[in-house]
Amino acid sequence: MDRINELVDILNEANYNYYVLDNPTITDQEYDKYLRELIDLEREYPEYIKDDSPTQRVGGEVSEGFSKHRHKIPMISLSNVFNEEEIRDFDRKIKKEGVNPEYVCELKIDGLGVSLSYENGKLITASTRGDGIVGEDITSNVKTIKSVPLSLKKPVTIEVRGEIYMPKKVLSELNKRREIDGLPLFQNCRNAAAGSIRQLDSKIVAERRLDTFIYHLPNPLDYNIKTHFEALEFMKELGFKTNSESMLVSDINGILDFIKSRGEKRKSLSYDIDGVVIKVNDIKTQSELGNTAKYPKWATAYKFPAEEVLTKLTDIIFTVGRTGAVTPNAMLEPVIVAGSTISRATLHNEDYVISKGLMIGDIVSIRKAGDVIPEVVEVKLDRRTGEEKSFIMASKCPICGSELKKYDDIVGSFCVNEHCPARKIESLCHYVSRNAMNIDGLGERIIEDFYNYGFIKSYSDIYKLGDIREKLIRLEGFGDKSVDNLLEAIENSKQNGLERLINAIGINGVGTKTAKVLAVKFKTLESLMNASYDELVAIQDIGDILSTSIVNYFKDEKNIQEINDLIELGVNTKYESSHIEEDERVSGKRFVITGSFDFITRDEIKRMIEDRGGNTSSSVSSKTDVVIVGDEPGKKYDDALRFGITIWRESELKEFIDE
After folding, report:
1. What average pLDDT does this structure show over 204-225?
2. Which of 135, 316, 359, 441 is most buried, judging by how many CB atoms fall within 10 Å of its CB?
3. Are strands 375-379 and 273-280 parallel, antiparallel or unpaired?
């Protein structure tokens, strides 16, 4: 027993020096020798195995799932700032409270939050953030992380928070092995860490070699700690791994200098960061400043600008949309941008390609700004070799070979063949899409397969798939349960609101917003079908071109027949008001949404605004009333600042949603 205790102390100290202090004190050979001796002794005397023995880190426990864990102190998230002016505004708000603060600047580690609880110095539970109130118990997996102490250097009862991450080197090695094994590669360190920590087999987690930084003590006053910087030192003394880059600064200039220097250092770090966290140092001041409903007022997170990378434009190909619009698309040498592998980006139309001066073979910069759609930013002219090829716009449809047509009042080239398979497939994909009839289980690949099999040639054919259930079950990748789930989703879609159906049937120029306006105005599809040009053009935001498009759509006998078939099959054609009262904060105002949100989609935000009397737009102008800003907002956010437009960040948006 004495020798087991001695070996555990030797190995734990070696682990601490290696994984926390980055200062190895014994060789790998010595470590392995001690570990083998400990394993042999524990095998012979299992009654003497200690909870904090390094042999307990190897994993092997297989869980059926993760149980819930309620945090004693909520794990609240931070507000975000994106530029120098917003950082100065954060500083001004704090000083307005009569405070002249010191700040602690820390690197914002790109991983996933974790809470660690200890009783008398022994690790009891580890849990995820979850919704901030309730997370998931991941104790068995966290025990495999060697920088997490199983026992502290002092027998204290304590809870600390930090970040689990995967080092860049580990990700690289892991992806090399996965490539050899024919497995999909992890896109980035954050996704790899999150996917690893949620493995049900802790042995797999142990193999992923995750790491941690601990950065927050929720109740420092209980330990007579007066500042956040003291709390970092206290947690380090207990044996936790803290980040050596954290710095105490005296004013706003210190914050800006820290952000600049760490931004320049970002790529050379052994781990990913996506920003800098700024915290008021004095704990008493933190308490006095307090929190909003969602965020602490004494801390914020500066997010680095969207990543921009270089790659090669290998080709420009053409695709056909449901309206017949032929779109050039950039084919790129695959490159990871903001955590996603990008090999393709839309180039919108011929004029766009010409304005960018693109040639096939160019080195171009790519980014994913506020929108998730990748875009080509610019050509790197100094990288041209003379072997690049000029862009030539297609003159014929790449699918059916029909001559393309251009219109005086519409940008772009169009395939006018109504029987073009590409147009048919795209229109069917649009019909079942999330913002239209929202039929889960009918993705693009399945729609294309069903079209080629002859199962679906029109919208109404979707509702007849139940007649060929046995054929569907025999298809590869299908079975009784999946087919029944699909048929149930199709049946449920019949009850959708009229606005979804109007959007789905593919009237040129009519999207979700216009469809809602038409549904509210005409109440039934029959009334809309009989609407005159004068009735339509009199509606706000529906001009001459759109009115003509709607009238022409309902003049087409094939469209009328298709609608009659849908009605006969039981698809709802009446508008049912949601009875949502208008909200004075949005009613009559024009909103623009930019960036991404973890807790809600942009389409859901749009619906909430429009249901309450507001309007949404895709671009910022002097007529815009409010810009709602999420992560990586891009140019629209800059425009909002330039025009002096009211900005709703995540806190204002959540407050609006909650109320």
Report:
1. 95
2. 135
3. unpaired
